[in-house]
Specification:
Helix content: 25-40%
Oligomer: single chain
CATH superfamily of the largest domain: HAD superfamily/HAD-like
Largest sheet: 8 strands, mixed
CATH architecture of the largest domain: 3-Layer(aba) Sandwich
Radius of gyration: 18 Å
CATH topology of the largest domain: Rossmann fold
Number of helices: 10
Structural class: alpha/beta
Shape: globular
Strand order of the largest sheet: 5-4-3-2-1-10-11-12
Order of helices and strands: HHEHEHEEEHEEHEEHEHEHEHEE
Length: 289
Protein backbone atom coordinates (compact mmCIF):
# COMPACT_ATOMS: atom_id res chain seq x y z
CA UNK A 1 0.00 0.00 0.00
CA UNK A 2 1.51 3.38 -0.95
CA UNK A 3 2.33 5.69 1.94
CA UNK A 4 -0.36 8.16 0.88
CA UNK A 5 -2.94 5.36 1.07
CA UNK A 6 -1.62 4.19 4.44
CA UNK A 7 -2.09 7.64 5.88
CA UNK A 8 -5.78 7.66 4.92
CA UNK A 9 -6.43 4.12 6.22
CA UNK A 10 -8.66 4.19 9.28
CA UNK A 11 -6.70 1.58 11.26
CA UNK A 12 -3.37 3.27 10.45
CA UNK A 13 -4.80 6.63 11.52
CA UNK A 14 -6.05 5.08 14.75
CA UNK A 15 -2.60 3.65 15.41
CA UNK A 16 -1.02 7.06 14.80
CA UNK A 17 -3.42 8.81 17.15
CA UNK A 18 -2.87 6.30 19.94
CA UNK A 19 0.91 6.23 19.51
CA UNK A 20 1.15 10.02 19.35
CA UNK A 21 -0.81 10.27 22.57
CA UNK A 22 1.47 7.80 24.33
CA UNK A 23 4.66 9.51 23.19
CA UNK A 24 3.35 12.87 24.39
CA UNK A 25 3.62 11.66 28.00
CA UNK A 26 7.18 12.09 29.29
CA UNK A 27 9.42 10.22 29.67
CA UNK A 28 8.29 8.16 26.68
CA UNK A 29 9.73 5.19 24.83
CA UNK A 30 9.16 3.02 21.79
CA UNK A 31 9.83 -0.72 21.72
CA UNK A 32 9.55 -2.74 18.52
CA UNK A 33 10.03 -6.24 17.25
CA UNK A 34 12.21 -6.66 14.13
CA UNK A 35 11.25 -9.51 11.79
CA UNK A 36 7.84 -9.07 10.22
CA UNK A 37 7.33 -5.79 12.05
CA UNK A 38 9.94 -3.51 10.46
CA UNK A 39 11.47 -5.98 8.01
CA UNK A 40 9.77 -8.13 5.43
CA UNK A 41 9.64 -11.89 5.96
CA UNK A 42 12.11 -13.27 3.41
CA UNK A 43 13.31 -16.81 2.53
CA UNK A 44 16.81 -16.10 3.88
CA UNK A 45 16.63 -14.69 7.46
CA UNK A 46 20.14 -13.21 7.12
CA UNK A 47 18.84 -10.91 4.38
CA UNK A 48 15.93 -9.41 6.34
CA UNK A 49 16.84 -5.73 6.20
CA UNK A 50 14.75 -2.81 7.45
CA UNK A 51 12.08 -1.56 5.07
CA UNK A 52 12.57 1.89 3.58
CA UNK A 53 12.10 4.84 5.98
CA UNK A 54 12.26 2.71 9.13
CA UNK A 55 15.93 3.40 9.86
CA UNK A 56 15.81 7.21 9.63
CA UNK A 57 12.59 7.30 11.65
CA UNK A 58 14.05 5.13 14.42
CA UNK A 59 17.22 7.23 14.52
CA UNK A 60 15.19 10.44 14.80
CA UNK A 61 12.99 9.01 17.54
CA UNK A 62 16.02 7.69 19.44
CA UNK A 63 17.35 11.25 19.57
CA UNK A 64 14.10 12.56 21.05
CA UNK A 65 12.65 9.85 23.27
CA UNK A 66 13.87 8.48 26.57
CA UNK A 67 14.53 5.15 24.84
CA UNK A 68 14.00 3.37 21.54
CA UNK A 69 14.68 -0.36 21.58
CA UNK A 70 14.39 -3.47 19.47
CA UNK A 71 12.87 -6.31 21.50
CA UNK A 72 13.53 -9.27 19.26
CA UNK A 73 14.30 -12.94 18.97
CA UNK A 74 17.40 -12.16 16.93
CA UNK A 75 20.87 -11.98 18.40
CA UNK A 76 21.64 -8.32 19.24
CA UNK A 77 24.72 -8.06 17.03
CA UNK A 78 22.70 -9.46 14.13
CA UNK A 79 20.19 -6.62 14.53
CA UNK A 80 23.03 -4.10 14.68
CA UNK A 81 24.50 -5.57 11.46
CA UNK A 82 21.20 -5.57 9.59
CA UNK A 83 20.11 -2.08 10.62
CA UNK A 84 23.36 -0.17 10.94
CA UNK A 85 21.77 1.63 13.91
CA UNK A 86 24.20 2.00 16.80
CA UNK A 87 22.03 4.38 18.86
CA UNK A 88 19.25 1.85 19.45
CA UNK A 89 19.11 -0.38 22.52
CA UNK A 90 18.68 -4.05 21.53
CA UNK A 91 17.05 -6.61 23.82
CA UNK A 92 17.85 -9.70 21.76
CA UNK A 93 17.40 -13.44 22.06
CA UNK A 94 13.89 -12.82 23.40
CA UNK A 95 15.07 -10.46 26.11
CA UNK A 96 17.97 -12.56 27.43
CA UNK A 97 20.79 -10.54 25.82
CA UNK A 98 21.16 -6.74 25.85
CA UNK A 99 23.33 -4.59 23.60
CA UNK A 100 23.57 -0.99 24.77
CA UNK A 101 23.68 1.93 22.31
CA UNK A 102 27.25 2.51 21.19
CA UNK A 103 28.53 -0.66 22.87
CA UNK A 104 30.28 -3.52 21.08
CA UNK A 105 29.72 -6.04 23.89
CA UNK A 106 26.40 -7.55 24.90
CA UNK A 107 25.36 -8.68 28.38
CA UNK A 108 23.17 -11.72 29.00
CA UNK A 109 20.68 -12.53 31.73
CA UNK A 110 21.48 -16.27 31.65
CA UNK A 111 24.49 -18.54 32.13
CA UNK A 112 25.88 -18.08 28.64
CA UNK A 113 28.08 -21.19 28.56
CA UNK A 114 25.43 -23.58 29.86
CA UNK A 115 22.69 -22.14 27.67
CA UNK A 116 24.78 -22.17 24.49
CA UNK A 117 25.73 -25.81 25.18
CA UNK A 118 22.08 -26.77 25.72
CA UNK A 119 20.98 -25.09 22.48
CA UNK A 120 23.80 -26.81 20.59
CA UNK A 121 22.74 -30.21 21.96
CA UNK A 122 19.17 -29.61 20.83
CA UNK A 123 20.28 -28.62 17.33
CA UNK A 124 22.48 -31.72 17.10
CA UNK A 125 19.28 -33.81 17.21
CA UNK A 126 17.83 -31.97 14.22
CA UNK A 127 18.36 -33.80 10.90
CA UNK A 128 18.69 -32.01 7.58
CA UNK A 129 15.14 -31.29 6.46
CA UNK A 130 14.40 -30.00 2.97
CA UNK A 131 13.19 -26.41 2.96
CA UNK A 132 14.28 -25.63 6.52
CA UNK A 133 16.88 -23.12 7.69
CA UNK A 134 18.52 -23.16 11.12
CA UNK A 135 19.41 -19.81 12.66
CA UNK A 136 21.76 -20.49 15.59
CA UNK A 137 21.88 -17.42 17.83
CA UNK A 138 23.96 -18.73 20.71
CA UNK A 139 21.49 -18.29 23.55
CA UNK A 140 18.59 -19.40 21.37
CA UNK A 141 17.89 -20.79 17.91
CA UNK A 142 15.21 -20.56 15.25
CA UNK A 143 14.27 -23.28 12.80
CA UNK A 144 12.55 -21.73 9.79
CA UNK A 145 10.37 -23.98 7.64
CA UNK A 146 8.77 -21.39 5.35
CA UNK A 147 10.44 -22.90 2.27
CA UNK A 148 9.35 -26.49 2.99
CA UNK A 149 7.09 -28.15 0.43
CA UNK A 150 4.75 -29.23 3.21
CA UNK A 151 5.11 -26.72 6.09
CA UNK A 152 2.74 -28.62 8.38
CA UNK A 153 4.75 -31.85 8.02
CA UNK A 154 8.00 -29.92 8.45
CA UNK A 155 6.83 -28.38 11.71
CA UNK A 156 5.84 -31.78 13.07
CA UNK A 157 9.19 -33.26 12.03
CA UNK A 158 11.09 -30.43 13.76
CA UNK A 159 9.18 -30.91 17.02
CA UNK A 160 9.63 -34.69 16.85
CA UNK A 161 13.39 -34.41 16.26
CA UNK A 162 13.97 -31.87 19.03
CA UNK A 163 12.02 -33.93 21.54
CA UNK A 164 11.77 -32.93 25.21
CA UNK A 165 14.10 -29.96 25.34
CA UNK A 166 12.83 -29.08 28.82
CA UNK A 167 15.31 -31.68 30.12
CA UNK A 168 18.02 -29.23 29.02
CA UNK A 169 16.32 -26.16 30.48
CA UNK A 170 14.87 -25.11 27.12
CA UNK A 171 11.42 -24.56 25.68
CA UNK A 172 9.97 -24.69 22.16
CA UNK A 173 7.69 -21.94 20.87
CA UNK A 174 5.98 -21.71 17.51
CA UNK A 175 5.77 -18.55 15.43
CA UNK A 176 5.13 -17.62 11.82
CA UNK A 177 6.62 -20.63 9.98
CA UNK A 178 9.25 -20.93 12.69
CA UNK A 179 10.06 -23.03 15.76
CA UNK A 180 11.99 -21.17 18.45
CA UNK A 181 14.34 -22.90 20.90
CA UNK A 182 14.60 -20.75 24.03
CA UNK A 183 16.00 -20.95 27.57
CA UNK A 184 13.10 -21.54 29.94
CA UNK A 185 12.52 -19.25 32.93
CA UNK A 186 15.20 -16.87 31.67
CA UNK A 187 12.93 -13.99 30.74
CA UNK A 188 11.14 -13.15 27.55
CA UNK A 189 10.05 -10.13 25.55
CA UNK A 190 7.65 -9.27 28.35
CA UNK A 191 10.27 -9.20 31.10
CA UNK A 192 12.54 -7.18 28.80
CA UNK A 193 9.73 -4.69 28.23
CA UNK A 194 9.17 -4.21 31.94
CA UNK A 195 12.91 -3.94 32.64
CA UNK A 196 13.29 -1.21 30.03
CA UNK A 197 10.20 0.66 31.20
CA UNK A 198 11.45 0.60 34.81
CA UNK A 199 15.01 1.53 33.93
CA UNK A 200 13.95 4.63 32.00
CA UNK A 201 11.01 5.53 34.23
CA UNK A 202 8.62 5.50 31.29
CA UNK A 203 5.22 7.14 31.61
CA UNK A 204 4.41 6.78 27.92
CA UNK A 205 5.08 3.66 25.85
CA UNK A 206 4.48 2.43 22.29
CA UNK A 207 5.08 -1.24 21.43
CA UNK A 208 4.94 -2.85 17.98
CA UNK A 209 4.92 -6.55 17.08
CA UNK A 210 3.55 -9.06 14.60
CA UNK A 211 3.86 -12.58 16.00
CA UNK A 212 2.81 -14.72 18.95
CA UNK A 213 6.22 -14.26 20.62
CA UNK A 214 5.38 -10.54 20.78
CA UNK A 215 2.33 -11.27 22.93
CA UNK A 216 4.62 -11.34 25.99
CA UNK A 217 5.60 -7.76 25.17
CA UNK A 218 1.95 -6.83 24.63
CA UNK A 219 0.91 -8.35 27.97
CA UNK A 220 3.68 -6.52 29.82
CA UNK A 221 2.60 -3.26 28.17
CA UNK A 222 -1.01 -3.90 29.20
CA UNK A 223 0.15 -4.48 32.79
CA UNK A 224 2.06 -1.20 32.70
CA UNK A 225 -1.09 0.53 31.45
CA UNK A 226 -2.95 -0.80 34.48
CA UNK A 227 -0.23 0.82 36.60
CA UNK A 228 -0.80 4.23 35.03
CA UNK A 229 1.54 4.27 32.01
CA UNK A 230 0.04 5.70 28.81
CA UNK A 231 0.39 2.77 26.39
CA UNK A 232 -0.29 2.15 22.69
CA UNK A 233 -0.05 -1.47 21.48
CA UNK A 234 0.27 -1.66 17.70
CA UNK A 235 -0.02 -4.98 15.88
CA UNK A 236 1.49 -5.45 12.44
CA UNK A 237 0.13 -7.84 9.83
CA UNK A 238 -2.74 -8.88 7.64
CA UNK A 239 -3.67 -11.98 5.70
CA UNK A 240 -3.55 -15.71 6.37
CA UNK A 241 -0.26 -15.68 8.31
CA UNK A 242 -1.25 -12.96 10.74
CA UNK A 243 -1.91 -14.65 14.12
CA UNK A 244 -5.40 -13.68 15.33
CA UNK A 245 -4.07 -13.40 18.88
CA UNK A 246 -1.98 -10.39 17.82
CA UNK A 247 -5.00 -8.46 16.57
CA UNK A 248 -6.95 -9.44 19.69
CA UNK A 249 -4.21 -8.06 21.99
CA UNK A 250 -3.44 -4.89 20.01
CA UNK A 251 -5.08 -1.49 20.40
CA UNK A 252 -4.73 -0.91 16.66
CA UNK A 253 -3.40 -2.79 13.63
CA UNK A 254 -1.39 -1.71 10.60
CA UNK A 255 -1.15 -3.89 7.52
CA UNK A 256 2.57 -4.67 7.15
CA UNK A 257 6.14 -3.58 7.78
CA UNK A 258 5.87 -0.73 5.27
CA UNK A 259 2.84 0.62 7.10
CA UNK A 260 4.67 0.29 10.42
CA UNK A 261 7.65 2.22 9.02
CA UNK A 262 5.31 4.90 7.72
CA UNK A 263 3.81 5.13 11.21
CA UNK A 264 7.25 5.64 12.75
CA UNK A 265 8.07 8.28 10.14
CA UNK A 266 4.88 10.15 11.00
CA UNK A 267 5.68 9.96 14.70
CA UNK A 268 9.18 11.29 14.05
CA UNK A 269 7.83 14.11 11.90
CA UNK A 270 4.81 15.16 13.88
CA UNK A 271 5.36 14.63 17.58
CA UNK A 272 6.10 17.58 19.82
CA UNK A 273 9.63 18.00 21.18
CA UNK A 274 10.28 15.31 23.77
CA UNK A 275 12.79 15.53 26.57
CA UNK A 276 15.49 12.93 26.24
CA UNK A 277 15.55 12.23 29.97
CA UNK A 278 17.02 8.81 30.66
CA UNK A 279 17.07 6.77 33.84
CA UNK A 280 19.92 4.39 34.36
CA UNK A 281 20.21 2.28 37.50
CA UNK A 282 23.98 2.36 37.15
CA UNK A 283 23.75 6.11 37.80
CA UNK A 284 21.48 5.65 40.81
CA UNK A 285 18.35 6.27 38.77
CA UNK A 286 19.34 9.84 37.98
CA UNK A 287 18.22 11.36 34.72
CA UNK A 288 20.94 11.76 32.11
CA UNK A 289 21.06 13.41 28.72
Amino acid sequence: MPESSQRTDASWSQALALASGALAVEPAGLLTDYDGTLSRIVPDPSAATLVDDAGPALAALADRLAVVAFVTGRAPHDVRRLTGLSTILVAGNHGTEFLEPGSQTSASTVDRGATEAAVARALDRLPTLAGTTVEHKGLSASVHYRNATDPVAARLAIHAALGHVDDDGLILRDGRMIVEILPVAAGDKGTATRQIATRFGLRGLVVLGDDVTDLDMFRAAADLRAEGVRVAIVGVGAGAEAPPEVAAAADAMVTDANAAASLLAALAEGSAPIRRARRDPRAGGAATR
